[in-house]
Amino acid sequence: MGKVLELAERLWSGTDTTATLHPFTQLLGLEPIQDGLGFVSSFANVNVLATSEGLVLLDAGSFFLAGSNFSNVREWSRERVHTAVYTHGHVDHAFGLGPFEEEARAQGWDPIRVVAHHAVNQRFDRYALTAGYNEIINRRQFGTAMWPTRYRRPDLTFHDRLELAVGGEAIQLFHDRGETDDHAWAFLPERRVLCTGDLFIWASPNCGNPQKVQRYPLDWARALRRMAELRAVALLPGHGPPILGEDRVHQALSETAELLETLVEQTLGLMNAGKRLDAVIHGVHAPAHLLERPYLRPIYDDPAFVVRNLWRLYGGWWDGNPAHLKPAPEVDVARELAALAGGAERLAERARALLGDGRLQLASHLVEHAALAAPGEEAIRRLRGEIYAARAEEEPSLMAKGIFGAAARGD
After folding, report:
1. Which stretches does DSSP call E strand in 243-383?
2. Shared domain check, 214 and 92
3. Domain residue limits at 69
């Protein structure tokens, strides 16, 4: 057993935890999973299937680790890459083909065939329109501002299902909406191996990202249920190590589906009762026993964000508060509240008291009003940084840490 599978066992057993070994940081290189099947542990994983016609890449990896992923694959096999499958068009999964295509041109090999869901092309069109915004998001969330503006589009697309046969290996591709609307997952029926892409990431599902476009929790849960019915013996996820063993794979898929299903059920129950978004956010609770699972900890996304995403999906953008339908500018509201309190400094004083009591949510509201009402006050600016630094320290999810951390720095 190599480093990747040893890590998988430690995480499953609870010897180690994703809180300290984040699935996005496990850059452990390539490890064989079965004869002719390799798993590249990277920021976003790459699966490599050896066939008599050449290699098949199930996900192509990220642009910023393309060189190291290429080296890992080439240490394992020198065969040409015949086909690459994108599970979806995110930059950490569909932007790592560059070195392989350069090699193919240099060697005079046939071009690599890229296969993906048809909506990947629409994603790339949107990326071109929103490149600046995506750079801002990446800076806030990951600390990097790089955003690609050139896209390797697929050569073959499909809608619901596609059967591939490459060099004697059968590959079944299925489309399901989940984290994205262009998501595909793969099943290797003769090997009983699932390649889930980001439908499984060793974390609470990334289904509520506050800075990204619509996600689809119920469709995601249904996809996981379909995968569980296949009785796979290996699950190769988009992030984090493999899960081996039919019972473990079935448990991980079923419990991830269960988490999403309960969030959907609770949210829709409150929406159907006519509750405002505020009441829904604070009234939905993810089951503690599921969040304690080693593969469902909220270390990247947060179930509370999934609730907001469900509201957007089923209820639109208005939160039910009539004052928010056509609101006054935030700065005007802040100035009025500061005037009522006796000045922005009074709001800041109360925010500091709440910080001292550990009531960070309320402290955030007050310090935001104070900072908007008196933008030139250095003491208020510093207090705002203190409060958001405390919030970033307290939060388990990378998304919340990124946003609060950016606020603490004044970004």
Report:
1. 243-244
2. yes
3. 3-261
